[in-house]
Amino acid sequence: MKTLLKKIIISVLPYGILCLYRKIKQRNSKDTQQKIMQQKADVFCRHFLKSKENGECYFEIAGAKLPNLYDYPNKINDLIHYVFQDTFFFPYFLNDNYDKSFADILDLYMVEGPYGYRDGNFDVSVKKGDIVMDIGAWVGDFSAYSSSKGAISYAFEPVSSIYEILQKTAELNTNIYPVKKGLSNKVGEISISVPLGWEVASSVSTYRNDSVNEIVSITTLDEFVKENNIPKVDFIKADIEGEERNMLRGANWVLKNYAPKLAICTYHNLEDPQLLEKIILEANPEYKIVHLRHKLFAQVIK
């Protein structure tokens, strides 16, 4: 019996040592990653963190103002690693030059790509006086950018914890109207999966083990525009974790009658590039559509 036990111990000991080594290595790697992320956050804050006379701090990036997300560790990481590229890279580094000569190349290296695209008279970008629908607003980064361009933005964010931050963004900028609803192809309520600490990826179509469910209100863009007597819609930006198709189905009247410029994420589902294009063209065949890796841009050229 002792001999057998000894053989077992000898046989599993190398595996046990290997597992222990891997665990220590993973812990050290995680600690290193956290230190790097902290260093990036510190550098980001030194560049963009401002303070009011009353001592209240906020971020200002290319004229757009955001609350001090340094108080929300996961949010500041999302801003630095994802949102800054999508929303602020072109305004900050390229003075809002979305020309295809830049966009086509940089899109290959960016996480998701920009929310603007220009190619001759095809110009999908926010202009002064535009009425923008920021669908999947998160903390309001794109709405803040739109405000800095002189546009009016309706910012749709159904998740309670994020909506609270969005309201602070609206207070820092002009002409941002937060809407605590999601947009779909029906009016009512729906259960949304909210990943703990990573609410930027909240979804009605995907459930994760580290998520909690929240019941949120939804409406259609057509219904919202008609109810609120909005005279035009010039630009729709949408990143809503796979619900883009239903949002577009609920915007049929707006697409047909107002023909807004579109910057829509297409990477959540494999069939999205073709399906979303089909929905748009069924609503308004006059649209010209351009696809990048993770977004489509559409405009009716007049």
How does this model look, in words?
With 302 residues, the chain is an alpha/beta fold. It folds into 2 domains: 2-46; 73-299, Rossmann fold. Helix content is 42%, strand content 23%. The chain contains 9 helices and 15 strands. The chain has helices at 2-48, 73-94, 100-106, 141-148, 160-172, 221-227, 244-249, 252-257, 272-283; strands spanning 49-51, 57-61, 64-67, 117-119, 122-124, 131-135, 152-156, 176-179, 182-183, 188-195, 211-219, 235-238, 261-265, 288-291, 295-299. The strands form 4 sheets. It has a 7-stranded mixed beta sheet with strand order 8-7-6-12-13-15-14. A 3-stranded antiparallel beta sheet has the order 1-2-3. The protein has a 3-stranded mixed beta sheet with strand order 9-11-10. β7, α5 (160-172) and β8 form a beta-alpha-beta unit. The radius of gyration is 23 Å and the shape is globular. It starts with a helix and ends with a strand. The model is unreliable at 12-16 and 198-208 (pLDDT under 50).
What structural class do you assign from the helix and strand content?
alpha/beta
- Name the helix and strand elements from N-terminus to C-terminus, one letter apiece: HEEEHHEEEHEHEEEEHEHHEHEE
Query: According to CATH, what is the class of the largest domain?
Result: Alpha Beta
Q: Looking at CATH, which topology of the largest domain would you report?
A: Rossmann fold
Which percent range fits the helix content? Answer: 40-55%
Low-confidence parts, pLDDT < 50 over ≥5 residues? 12-16, 198-208
Radius of gyration: 23 Å
Oligomeric status: single chain
What's the helix count? Answer: 9
Q: Quick one: biggest sheet?
A: 7 strands, mixed
CATH superfamily of the largest domain: Vaccinia Virus protein VP39
Mean pLDDT: 87
Quickly count the domains. Answer: 2
- CATH architectural designation of the largest domain: 3-Layer(aba) Sandwich
What distance lies between the first and last C-alpha atoms, to the nearest angstrom?
88 Å
Strand content: 15-25%
Strand order of the largest sheet: 8-7-6-12-13-15-14
E-strand count:
15
Shape call: globular
